[in-house]
Amino acid sequence: MQRPIQAIYHGSVKSKLLILTSLFLLLVLLTLYAVSQGAVEVALPELLAILSGRASDEMTAYIVYEIRLPRMVMSIITGVSLACAGAIMQAILRNPLADPFTLGVSSGAAFGAALAIVAGTSVFGINLVSSGQWMIALNAFVFGCLAVGAVYGIAKLKNSSTTVLLLAGVAIGQLFSAGVSGLKFFSNNEALKDLVVWLMGGFWGAKWQVLHILLPLVIISLVLLLKYAWDLNSLCAGEDVARTLGVNVKQVRWVCLLLVTLMASVTIAFTGIIGFIGLVAPHISRIIIGTDYRFLLPCSCLMGALLLLLSDTAARMVLSPIEIPVGIITALFGAPFFVYLLLKKRKDYWA
Amino acid sequence: MYMQVKDLSIKYGTKMILKQIQMNLQKGEVASIIGPNGAGKTTLLKSMASIITVERARIWIKDRDIRSYSANELAKTLGYVPQHTAFGYPLTVLETVLLGRKPYMQWNVTAHDLEVAGAIMERLQLAEMAQRYMDELSGGERQKVLIARALAQEPEILLLDEPTSALDIRHQLEVLELVRQLALQQQVLVVLIMHDLELAARYSDRVFLLQQGQIYASGRPEEVFTSANMEQVYGVKVEIGQGSSGLKLTATLPESR
């Protein structure tokens, strides 16, 4: 009847790896499907031929490589980075409602990016030259850090409770939104159009140049964060206990918070504000794979990528040829989920 | 001397929490810290676990200042079981016990880690619930899992903050029996904070009675549990007798008859 611990452990690892593999395959299939759909439909055999470098039609190959693929990769990488940021923030702040959106990182980064766009709009608009892209990314990061620092600081001053953290997030978020509105008001026509389109959140700006910044940044951060998996698990047992388990709590907090703020804010700089992925993906993953961060983190990333790619494909296809901003779609399924979490939250664990 | 507290004083703002605490603890003994609420028991235990950082060389383990231990080194020497754990996202029982292997692990759980965790879970009869989540367990089971996690660190010193406070009498006895066996068989030094004086008397080799941050009395249970000491520290009248399994304490408020 009773199985030895070894068998139980290896069994659970195996099933978790199976979940990760299935999610990955699902993501590959969805990507192929998304690339084939659009104004010009590319049939699967043709698509495979193009991807393996035997393009029959130059035009279709161009559409696939320069328009569709960058966009798909962009939504995947955005999903990965937002979901990862959410999962990490929920662990280090010990708070199920933490994500880049609720903690004000999104608004802060948006303000930073908007500032860069408006200030430098004569040189680079939404079709940015590469130096401009770096400046936008840097600006977004600096203001994202400012926002999360302010929210965390306020919560710490009071009592670090969930309520204070969320309210501080709302307040700081509003402050930066006001800043963005101010920028809209004072900017000229050209910049205003760029700004408005960008703020709605979407992957119109997807270009390989942008991905050359994002891809390495997200992948390196992710690998570094995965190294902290056991520390994050320990933190789930409480700060005091984590310390007696040999975790340098302060260092883990700061390194992780800095890395995810970097990931999230730089991503937001190029996509605009896309809400709820950072909140929803980790929670769904927690339900299907458990709390062990060695598996939860990759699972959240895959889940975030899947959800966002799905949303973006829906955004492109629902009213085709008109594209809806993807932020609208994510909010549509994210907001009800957020309310559900608020209602269901088990007080005794989080008080 | 195995673990020493030398002249430890701790202040929060202007309030003295601990005053000149002296303790000399031996390998393989069970020591209880008792005293009324607010006497500084938890602060003392947390300083001994290095959760509260002490400014000077006040706490020594095996003739080394506790501050000279690296975080991992200390985690392999000393296990700590908190009073009540607020859960974050619930882990399974097995995952929780494996957390105790954290100071030994890189990223992978090795066969040896599983062996250690498995043996401890067998011993505490937790093996059947390995896959259950912590929030599905009863208070007694949860306390055992937390002790198992501390034991998975293979510590030479085990610190427990009121391990029996949330448990029914059967689980209280189980936990205390376990702790005594660890001290006897594996020569672990166990330091407990206790509220139940009779159980403290029965299971401890030594008792430290705290009053307002100071050690009011210390020694073998029968030396510490005297009517005079109890009245002075707790402000109650206590009749002390000899029961079949240890000291018997009957406390009454001084006003009542």
From TrEMBL, chain B:
GO MF term list: ATP binding; ATP hydrolysis activity
UniProt keywords (A-Z) are: ATP-binding, Nucleotide-binding, Translocase, Transport
| CDD domains per UniProt | ABC_Iron-Siderophores_B12_Hemin
The record ties this protein, via SUPFAM superfamilies, to:
P-loop containing nucleoside triphosphate hydrolases
Per UniProt, residues of the ABC transporter domain are 3-237
Q: Which PANTHER family match?
A: HEMIN IMPORT ATP-BINDING PROTEIN HMUV
Q: What is this protein called?
A: ABC transporter ATP-binding protein
